[in-house]
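Structure in, sequence out. Go:
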């Protein structure tokens, strides 16, 4: 008995009297430099805000991040960093993957490493088929693209569309998703224009001029969020395309909240489909945006990347508890199949079959508010949208 008390006292002394928090190491693979760096700041702030607002839910665990720079959006560096995190840092889980090529190139290592890997942005639909450890809390390009294909035909009554897209996997996905739904509902995509790559912002003038000459009812564009989106909207305005009777539509990536004010009047009237905008009117989002502005400044705003980080962190915390902090790959993934969460974007769930998120899509319009700032107004809510690429078993989405 005495011996047991001495051991207990010694243990207490070693931990300063408090029970030792069990450390969980999460490797973050995100672009800390280059074109994606400002997007990473949003993801990280979203993660940190989740941990701060939910400190009680994290206890008794302590999450330590091991951060690795995935640099340019081509997958090479991300793959090397995943290797390092798994074999040298021996992390318990991985999160991140801003760009689809990063998640695609890393997939064989993720599958071999057998650790939970939470995708907080990369949107190409088939990615989750590449490794059973991938769980996605962000979105697929089909969720926004398909929803817009239906809305363009049925709500906007468009008959013809031209699509311009950044020429890499999520751009091709977004094109196919839009085309599939638009044409199934009576529309016709009359041209699809590859418009440069994700690594640097191209001059959009020749691509949009070609679209203008074709006089479609709508121009559907996917570009990755960030500086691409600002340049796109400004070029659309500079070419007088609205006056020519062409409506610019796309996934919400083209009106990312952190870029919106910088787009100015050119953005007014843009119609998009997405799972999040900072103006969403629900209690969770009010709390999220309020806490964000308090911590990061009244003029700052979260966006869909921030919510991807927030929801990703919530998923990891859930998996940590469900596995008693062990996070062994299979059990961690299993614990997230069917997981439900009340996110700032609305209710979300992880589809147990695909490990992809199921969430609301909002049909949004950019409006100028009485405060002379641009806002996103929800025109319609489409509840609990699944990834249609997998539901319809299209191409590499077939399991
Ligand atoms: C992607 O590479 O999958 C990606 C990047 C930025 C976005 C959307 C998708 O805004």
């Amino acid at each position: 008995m005495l011996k047991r008390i001495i051991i207990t006292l010694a243990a207490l002394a070693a931990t300063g009297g408090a029970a030792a928090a069990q450390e969980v190491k999460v490797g973050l693979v995100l672009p800390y430099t280059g074109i994606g760096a400002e997007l990473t700041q949003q993801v990280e702030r979203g993660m940190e805000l989740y941990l701060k607002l939910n400190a009680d839910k994290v206890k008794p665990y302590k999450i330590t991040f091991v951060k690795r720079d995935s640099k340019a959006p081509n997958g090479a560096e991300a793959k090397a960093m995943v290797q390092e995190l798994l074999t040298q840092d021996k992390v318990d889980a991985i999160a991140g993957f801003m760009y689809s090529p990063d998640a695609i190139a890393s997939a064989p290592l993720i599958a071999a490493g057998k650790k939970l890997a939470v995708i907080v942005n990369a949107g190409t639909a088939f990615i989750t088929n590449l490794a059973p450890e991938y769980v996605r809390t962000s979105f697929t390009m089909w969720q926004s693209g398909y929803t817009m294909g239906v809305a363009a035909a049925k709500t906007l009554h468009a008959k013809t569309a031209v699509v311009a897209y950044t020429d890499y996997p999520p751009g091709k996905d977004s094109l196919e998703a839009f085309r599939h739904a638009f044409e199934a509902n009576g529309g016709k995509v009359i041209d699809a224009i590859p418009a440069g790559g994700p690594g640097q912002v191209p001059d959009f003038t020749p691509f949009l001029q070609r679209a203008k000459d074709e006089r479609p009812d709508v121009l559907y564009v996917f570009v990755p969020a960030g500086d691409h989106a600002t340049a796109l909207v400004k070029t659309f305005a500079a070419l007088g395309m609205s006056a020519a009777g062409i409506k610019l539509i796309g996934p919400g990536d083209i009106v990312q909240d952190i870029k919106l004010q910088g787009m100015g009047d050119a953005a007014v009237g843009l119609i998009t489909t997405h799972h999040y905008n900072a103006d969403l009117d629900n209690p969770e989002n009010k709390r999220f945006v309020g806490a964000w502005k308090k911590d990061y400044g009244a003029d700052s705003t979260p966006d869909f990347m921030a919510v991807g980080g927030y929801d990703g962190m919530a998923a990891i915390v859930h998996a940590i508890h469900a596995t008693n902090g062990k996070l062994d790959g299979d059990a961690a993934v299993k614990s997230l199949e069917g997981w439900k969460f009340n996110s700032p974007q609305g209710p979300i769930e992880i589809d147990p079959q695909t490990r992809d998120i199921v969430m609301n899509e909002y049909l949004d319009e950019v409006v100028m508010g009485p405060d002379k700032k641009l806002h996103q107004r929800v025109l319609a809510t489409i509840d609990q949208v699944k990834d249609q690429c997998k539901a319809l078993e299209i191409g590499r989405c077939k399991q």
